[in-house]
Every structure is written in C-alpha cells, then in structure tokens.
Amino acid sequence: DRHCRAFHRLLSARTRLYTEMITTGALLHGDVARHLDFDAAEHPVALQLGGSEAPDLAACVTLARQWGYDEVNLNCGCPSERVQRGAFGACLMNEAALVADGVKAMLDAVSGQIPVTVKHRIGIDREERYSFVRDFVGTVAQAGCSVFIVHARNAWLQGLSPKENREIPPLRYELVHRLKSEFPALTIAINGGITTSQAVEEQLQHVDGVMVGR
Asked: Among all residues, which ones are annotated catalytic?
C-alpha cells in the first residue's frame, strides 16, 4: 500500500514501485481515492490491476492516467481461489487471446500514453512446456505489450495456498532467460526467490529487470 511504498522509496530512489493488486470492481464500484491516492515521492509507481473484462480494464487504465500513475500492470499470476472465481489472475494464462484483447483495450483507452505491462507465471498446474509461456508472451506482445514481468514458477491452481504457491513450485529461471533470448525486443523482468543484491546482479546478465516482491 502507499505507506509501504513510501518506506520503499526511502530505500531506493529509482526502483519502480507497484501497488498491491486492485480489482477492476473495487475501482469501478468502490472508493477510488482510497485505492489510488499516492504521494508524488513514490514516482515511478505502477498500478497493478486484477480483471479480465476489456471494458472494465479500459475504464480503470483511464483512472490510472488521471491519477498520475506511470504504468498499469495486469496481473496474470495470482493463484488464489478468490481470484480464480473472478476469472482473472493466473488462470488468464489459459486465455492469451483474452489477455491480448484487454491489453489492446487499455492501450487504446489512453492512446498509449502510459505503458501497459503484464505480470505472469511460467505456466499453470502441471503445464511445464516452455512453448506454453512462449506462446502466451507472443500473443500478448502482438497486442502492444512490450514489458513482461515473469514469476519463474508455475502457479498450481488446486491444492496450494497463495503462500505455498510462492514457495513450493520449483523456480525455473532458465525459462525466463530463454524468453529474453527469443524476444530480444521485449523488456523481460524476472521475479521469484531473488533475495540478495548479488542474485540481482546475476539475473541482470540475462534479463532486463528484477522484481523483488517480499
């Protein structure tokens, strides 16, 4: 939240900060100021959205531009049952064309004035083929997304809690590195299990950025 981000900005002057995931429904039917207000010191700051309906996503990215966010990030990686019931988060990796439609709707709504990025996993459940994540990225990139933040674990949609989903599925950094080699024009950032500055430096030999989530 904004208080945590203010603290993180004290730790780093340049790191891009992200909101917690905010659903499109919360913005369209709730207290917009409570969800979106932030201090200018937090820049650069990205709004992370949870949703799958293109018109709702377009309306929310318009709000993000009005409130001064530097980026809108679509969450395609959260595995919680509540998020699955809302038909967004990690289960969207099974619907790359739907994600592409949402990305295009968001970019069109703001005439490309702020970037729309996607955060996702390398696979879902027991789907471990590289081609699955490659095809997802390729499809969404064609809609105009040029930045992908990849949590280098599968999301298991059944049988694990969200906390366990951040720890139990094995990390496979090599798949994220391969994405960068096959899509050199895209910005690929890696996420998952990176806890030291040395590990960050090692990853930056292969990818464009590192996200630290905890």
From this structure: 78
